[in-house]
Design goal:
This protein is an alpha+beta fold. It is built from three helices and four strands; from the N terminus they run H-E-E-H-H-E-E. The protein has a domain of about 55 residues: Arc Repressor Mutant, subunit A (Orthogonal Bundle).
Length: about 90
Amino acid sequence: MANLGREFLIEYNKRKDRYKRPKGFWKNKRHPREYKLIQYDVDMNIIKNWDSISEISKQLNYNKQNISKAVRNNSKYKNSYWKRIQ
């Protein structure tokens, strides 16, 4: 019985690997869920345009989830408003 489970796992892993993206697939492409943002101050003056939430997180050391939540709820995060560019 244990052997049957092992064979299943080996076969499952072979099928799973077929759907993986090749290494470097997103290198020069924008991920479909990635979008540009505009950062506003409290008086709604534009501070900066950003290419992605990841870029903001890396440069300003802000939490990605909190920025995303501020964009969705149209609320303030770190004394700035964040809007999505469409």
